[in-house]
Amino acid sequence: MRVEQLTCAIGAELHDVNLGDAVRDDGLFNDIYAALLKFKVLFLRDQDFEKLSRKDHMAFAMRMGQLETHPMVPSHPEAPGLVQIYKTPEKPADRYENSWHCDTTFREAPPMGAVLRCIECPPVGGDTMWANMVLAYEKLPEYVKQEIEGLIASHSFNASFAAAMPQEKRLAMKTQYPDAEHPVVRTHPETGEKVLFVNAFATHFVNYHSEGRVRFGQDYNKGGSDLMQYLISQAYNPEYQVRWRWRPYSVAIWDNRCTQHYAVMDYPPCHRKMERAAIVGDKPFR
Ligand code: SIN
């Protein structure tokens, strides 16, 4: 396997690999997993159904843990757990996807990662971008690091994609997925790296109030909201990013604990079909 680093910040492309082989080959799987921890997102080209059947797509992901069923997006009928992110010209509302996010951080235990394959895409447009949130934390000014030490954020599906859903559906979902609280700076459970862990699902800090920070309620809005927006906007820095241009049967594998991603919605109404196996993670800790 040849590993080609794609940017100084994040991402590598793997060459001369059939991902299906990594389902059965421990050595190959371990090499890929080590590369994932190092580069945070990996890319492969030409992983068609011969090289990687849908069953193998799921089996590869399941080497890293259990598959997550998505609360809003349906799975492939013959492959439960393989979520179909299909955009069609007929359903433009479903195209609402463009927001920097970590997958489902409104859950107590968000996914540790995901394996996404492109089945069909526009000839140009519809790229996906990833940002390295370890680097985003590392580069924060020292006084900001001190200010956010120990802060906890509330995450809600209402804050992002679900905002387009009818109110009854959102209220019904809320009982199943109440808001989750996560540390603003989490420790990666395997690498020990510190990660800036707020994204489009984060609504507010739950423990911002302290004598030094809040004199009146208005200070909370000014201080807390501005700080939250500043932290969320760190993922927008090109210095922390990689941008991937899809072709049919390209694959991306990412570590959802330390990255964010953004599916760029710059293409005209057309088919863009992606299939994603997300892997259940553990509860983030400081
Ligand atoms: C996702 O947000 O997990 C999907 C990204 C994409 O469709 O490119």
Describe the structure.
The chain has helices spanning 21-24, 26-39, 54-62, 133-138, 142-148, 167-176, 217-232, and strands spanning 2-5, 12-15, 41-44, 75-76, 79-87, 113-120, 128-132, 152-155, 180-183, 185-187, 194-196, 202-205, 241-244, 251-255, 259-263, 272-279. With 286 residues, the protein is an alpha+beta fold. The strands form 4 sheets. It has an 8-stranded mixed sheet with strand order 1-2-3-14-6-16-5-4, covered by helices on one side. The chain has a 3-stranded antiparallel sheet with strand order 13-7-15. It is globular and about 65 Å long. Bound molecules: succinic acid (SIN).
Radius of gyration: 19 Å
**What percentage of the residues does DSSP assign to strands (E)?**
25-35%
Shape, principal axes of CA atoms: globular
- The helix content, as a percent range, equals 10-25%
CATH topology of the domain at 71-248 and 255-273: Double-stranded beta-helix
Strand order of the largest sheet: 1-2-3-14-6-16-5-4
| First-last Cα distance | 35 Å
Query: Using DSSP, what is the number of strands?
Result: 16
Q: Which molecules are bound besides the chains?
A: succinic acid
What ranges have pLDDT less than 50 throughout 5 or more consecutive residues?
Answer: none
CATH architecture call of the domain at 71-248 and 255-273: 4-Layer Sandwich
Q: Tell me the series of helices and strands, N- to C-terminal.
A: EEHHEHEEEEHHEHEEEEHEEEE
InterPro entries: AtsK-like, TauD-like_sf, TauD/TfdA-like
Family: Belongs to the TfdA dioxygenase family.
Organism: Pseudomonas izuensis
Protein name: TauD/TfdA family dioxygenase
